[in-house]
Amino acid sequence: MISRRNFIKSLGVTLGLVGAASLLPHPATSAHDTSRASMGMDQPGGHADLSGTVGETDLSLFDPSAFMTRFDMGTVSQTSSGRTLREYAVTALDQEIEIAPGVWFPAWTYNGQVPGPTFRCTEGDLLRFHFSNGSTHPHTIHFHGNHPPGMDGVSPIINPGESFTYEFEARPFGLHLYHCHVMPLKKHIHRGLYGTFIIDPPGGRSPAHELVMVMNAFDTNFDNENEVYAVNTVAFHYSRHPVQVRVGELIRVYLTNLTEFDLINSFHLHAAMFRLFRTGTNLENYELTDNVIMGQGERHILEFTLDYPGQYMFHAHQSEFAELGWMGLFEAVA
Description:
mainly beta; Immunoglobulin-like; 6 helices; five-stranded mixed beta sheet; about 325 residues; 2 domains
């Protein structure tokens, strides 16, 4: 079984990602006209394609750009005491996902996608997550934050065909995450059972262009080393489809790290600096930087503005991760 590093060395990034498709069975895909892509001219404005891939993933199945701004607020009602109740439906499913053009991965998912939905609420809300296991393996949902031990997602383990409702009060406000907690943990997390969980402060945060970024990676040949890296699953997606923002607007990134098999991951922003609110549980204290290193399970809120029109690169500041898919662009327009 070829290792990640030999994979890169022997084939190069472009051939490596395209060739990785042969490692796994995958659905038939339609042919793409790659003439412009091969010349690096398929980007808005004709700028060079920074990616090491050719072609396009099926965005009708999962669109990382749309995922960035999609928040699941639940079904909202009021309890008899007037408290806000939010209810969410979550189903574990086995699902093949496309992680680069023509490269399919046999994922374990929440609601058929990786990352799972971004759940959002306000501190003090009563939450009910109705979880059903429609997959072929036992799973749970472990939420970070405060809640009773019986709602922690370690037990009971939900077997295929079974259901369970997690109920707890949303606290504290901040940026959290959720994931499966069935052993072996590395297998359940790596296969895709994770997502972002946002608890807003009672008064909310200042208005901003809000974006969710989940740093993740995929071991396509199951040797406990990742071959493909990304933010929001699809390698180089934001290089091919830059994130559209406006000059001078406040941008707020909800950044989480769910990368398995690597001790750290990171986020680096070019040509600008961001205010880093660690875990998002404080509204005032921050540090100003352009790079943050995070272990698995760490999450931070990043706030910044881009002062000039143009394209601003962002990527992992581990070169290997960037070259294997974890790279993108903000495109600021006046």
